[in-house]
């Protein structure tokens, strides 16, 4: 039996059809990010919702719009808000807008995992992903915050996801590293002293008036010119919407608010307003 002729790279001369593989770096990057998004929203397998309003049946439209609470997916914000997050993250990378990413209120961490994956796909090593949450659900309404009177978010147990589970979700996808920073606790306690110098994207997902204000007050001034504010609950929660209106009015912010999917919105930070 003769000795096998083994090449150093057995795929070096493999041809696909008439030509060698021609996938470009940008095409491969886009393919990875597309797959990561579908994995995080679990559009691939369509896991059943656990909320009381979806009837226990998977609905692709509801999942795309973030109108259900997935039983297994790492995010509930839906495909459209995820696509917006990708667009804005790629924009600050390509435009060189300085700063990190932070999400205030992360649930299972899917949006933060997504941004970390996008940064990795682009080879970005000088931006951090800040994961800010109590990891115990939402706080009860503050008696000194009448805008949140009667709010029931603190009673919804599915919103309480541990830090360990979120870390595990990063790890499962190979995205847990030193660029991921956790801020555990109520926003009013953790965000004012957080060691964040600049932000390119501030994503607010605190639902309530108080939680939204507790993030805006210490962090808005750190968002770079050309950066973005994303508000996940604007179209769904009155307290959140009122907090945004009050903060923008108090700070003379006139940048137009842009709708994403009927619930989430964003605006871009300008030099003035």
TrEMBL record:
Keyword Methyltransferase (UniProt): yes
GO BP of this protein: methylation
Chain residue ranges for the region called Disordered: 1-20
Gene Ontology molecular function terms on file: methyltransferase activity
UniProt-listed InterPro entries: SAM-dependent_MTases_sf, TylF_MeTrfase
Keyword terms of this UniProt record: Methyltransferase, Transferase
Record protein name field: TylF/MycF family methyltransferase
Organism: Rhodomicrobium udaipurense
């Amino acid at each position: 039996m003769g000795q096998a002729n083994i090449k150093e790279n057995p795929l070096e001369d493999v041809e696909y059809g008439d030509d060698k593989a021609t996938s470009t770096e940008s095409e491969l990057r886009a393919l990875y990010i597309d797959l990561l998004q579908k994995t995080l929203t679990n559009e691939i397998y369509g896991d059943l919702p656990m909320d009381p309003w979806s009837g226990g049946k998977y609905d692709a439209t509801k999942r795309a719009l973030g109108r259900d609470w997935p039983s297994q997916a790492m995010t509930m914000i839906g495909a459209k808000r995820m696509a917006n997050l990708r667009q804005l993250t790629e924009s600050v990378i390509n435009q060189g807008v300085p700063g990190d990413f932070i999400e205030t209120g992360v649930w299972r961490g899917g949006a933060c995992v997504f941004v970390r994956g996008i940064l990795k796909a682009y080879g970005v090593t000088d931006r951090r992903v800040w994961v800010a949450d109590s990891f115990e659900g939402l706080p009860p309404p503050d008696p000194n915050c009448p805008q949140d009177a009667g709010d029931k978010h603190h009673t919804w147990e599915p919103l309480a996801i541990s830090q360990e589970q979120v870390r595990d979700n990063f790890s499962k996808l190979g995205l847990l590293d030193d660029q991921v920073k956790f801020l555990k606790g109520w926003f009013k306690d953790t965000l004012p002293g957080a060691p964040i110098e600049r932000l390119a994207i501030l994503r607010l997902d605190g639902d309530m008036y108080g939680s939204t204000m507790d993030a805006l007050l210490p962090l808005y001034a750190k968002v770079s010119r050309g950066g973005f504010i994303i508000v996940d609950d604007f179209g769904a929660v009155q307290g959140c919407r009122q907090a945004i209106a009050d903060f923008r009015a108090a700070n003379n912010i006139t940048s137009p608010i842009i709708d994403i999917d009927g619930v989430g919105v964003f605006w871009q930070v300008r030099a003035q307003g």
